[in-house]
Write a structure and sequence with these properties.
The protein is an alpha/beta fold and 294 residues long. The chain has 11 helices and 13 strands. It binds zinc ion.
């Protein structure tokens, strides 16, 4: 990417006023341009990546079904080409909830094998099963390349990080990385142990992606605002620091409750506000403990 392209970063806030007025939940989809053809969309749930160009629209993750019309409207402002492909970075509902709607809009859904398996076999919160239209059609077990809109997009799986079906995507010309939920910016991550996640997988996921990126890479985290390599490295340091501290306590024979109730382990990062409503310091300590005692 050229320097001038690097400089073309601007915010466009798209207010979907029509649906906003009818909808009690006041989510707006914010669109941020990252390169000539790649955008980040922020609404509610996991951050969305979009590539537009002559070949059509390529989407990464789709938040919740109730937001699909707003997401569609935001994308239509970027391109009038058909929706071609949608990649799910993993199976969680705040990244795949719009799958059925996106399928109906023409997108072919792609994901890791385990995303297909979990979406197909796990009931939704209301106990219903997902329709076929919400499931990935193309699945892969290691890596996949998509050649679209003038560049190669490398999609690669990392083992047992946030879940057992995580994929990261790297746009090789745009120099944009979408990490899915293997990266929460400035927050404690959610290690979904019940879905195959682990602290060591998390650490390895970041290390795998670091091989591809440079100081100019724009990073779309699963949650949080647009990021960069320096912030990604500090996330890795946090993971490694907490892992080492919890491991030291385990080696001393401490129980999970003792670790969870020891404030010194997370104090440095608690002071930096890594706590958030879903993962507080107790939860991250318990998750790392369980992960290391598996
Ligand atoms: Zn997730």
């Amino acid at each position: 990417m050229t320097t001038s392209q690097n400089l073309i970063i601007f915010f466009t806030i798209l207010f979907c006023t029509a649906s906003y007025a009818q909808n009690s939940n006041d989510v707006t989809i914010e669109t941020l341009q990252l390169s000539n053809n790649v955008y980040m969309l922020v609404g509610q749930g996991g951050n969305i990546g979009v590539s537009v160009g002559d070949d059509g629209v390529f989407i990464i993750d789709d938040q919740f079904a109730r937001l699909s019309s707003k997401i569609e409207a935001a994308i239509k402002k970027l391109s009038d080409k058909p929706f071609q492909f949608l990649v799910n970075t993993h199976w969680h509902g705040d990244h795949t909830g719009g799958n059925e709607n996106m399928h109906k809009l023409g997108a072919t859904i792609i994901a890791h094998d385990n995303v297909h398996k979990r979406l197909k076999e796990t009931p939704k919160r209301d106990k219903s099963m997902r329709p076929k239209a919400a499931l990935p059609v193309i699945t892969f077990n290691d890596k996949l390349n998509i050649h679209i809109n003038g560049e190669q997009v490398a999609i690669f799986h990392v083992n047992n990080a946030h879940t057992d079906g995580d994929a990261l995507l790297y746009f090789t010309q745009s120099n944009v990385l979408h990490t899915g939920d293997t990266y929460f910016k400035n927050r404690y991550p959610y290690i979904d142990i019940n879905s195959g996640g682990s602290i060591d997988g998390y650490i390895n996921a970041v290390k795998s992606a670091l091989i591809l990126i440079d100081d100019d890479t724009k990073i779309i985290p699963g949650h949080g605002s647009l990021s960069n390599k320096a912030e990604y490295l500090s996330f890795l340091k946090m993971l490694e620091t907490l892992r080492a501290s919890v491991k030291a306590e385990i080696d001393k024979g401490k129980t999970e409750d003792e670790v969870a109730n020891n404030p010194s382990i997370t104090k440095h990062y608690d002071d930096l506000n890594f706590n958030w409503n879903f993962i507080n310091s107790e939860k991250i300590k318990r998750a790392i403990y369980k992960s290391l005692n598996h």
